[in-house]
Amino acid sequence: MTLRYLADFIPESRYRSVRHYHPHAKQLRTRNKQLNIIFHIEGDTVIVDKILTSKMIIN
Fold it and tell me: In angstroms, what CA-CA distances link 40 with 31, 33, 51, 56?
């Protein structure tokens, strides 16, 4: 599956550090749980704001 198919089903993030990048930011963890992909949706387009290590996501 690609991010564009999953983006509509992923809820907005509750973490302040993620919402720092966009007010409606969402996050997706990679399979090995090492990385977080932070993105938002504009129309029909998914825009990746940042890719961070999971250790950097704090509340």
Answer: 20, 20, 12, 19
Q: How far apart are CA 45 and CA 51, in angstroms?
A: 17
Q: In a structure prediction context, what are the per-residue pLDDT tens digits for the chain, which is 59 residues long?
A: 577 788 889 999 998 888 999 999 999 888 888 888 999 999 888 999 999 887 777 66
- What is the number of residues in the chain? 59
SS3 (DSSP) at 31 = coil
Give this prediction's pTM.
0.81
